[in-house]
Design a protein that fits this description.
8 strands, 222 residues, 17% strand, 36% helix, Rossmann fold
Amino acid sequence: MNGIGLFGGTFNPLHMGHLKVAKDVKAGLNLEKIYFIPSAIPPHKGIDNLADAADRFQMIKAAIPPGKGFIASDVEIHRQGPSFTIDTVRYFKDKLPERTPCYLIVGIDAFFEIDTWKSFQKLLGLIPLIVMTRPAQNTKQIADPFAELEKYIHVHMDSGYKFVDQRSCFVHPAKQPVSLFHVTSIDISSTKIRNYVRQGLSIKGMVPDTVETYIHKKGLYL
């Protein structure tokens, strides 16, 4: 599998867990590039203690290693209104060379809300999904991701999806596949980092040094 991965989120802030799963997916699926896409106005999350989008974008730029195929994208920052995934996918499909394989990378916690996303049925027809099994803060560990995914897909998305063991993904005759990709679980969350900063505790090792420096320099999350 070659192509481009689109990895969106608030990245408030970007941390070592984000970088680790991106490296896992890029290497495991042999992707050429992964775009980190911070949302300007996330439609599904509150904006309390949300750093300015420009700051979150700059932290990503400072954190990603040069020459490794990771790119910070400000496409959602420059677009007016809430940051809807389908608009971002359409942007990249228009921008990239024709027939460039393109994949949407999401955490399993975010995937289980996809039926609430804007035009999610159209989204399923536009781009294959790579669902990372990475438990989020305050989200229960999923013992059997395949069974949970199958149930959710059939109930909330489309009962026409069928799991193909040889491909490790759910396929549909008229929509894009949904693949499950296991990533290394790291006990780090943006919420924990923000709380540590607010309490004056060290966040060293939880975020890249460049991000730690940026947070303290700008006085974020206090």
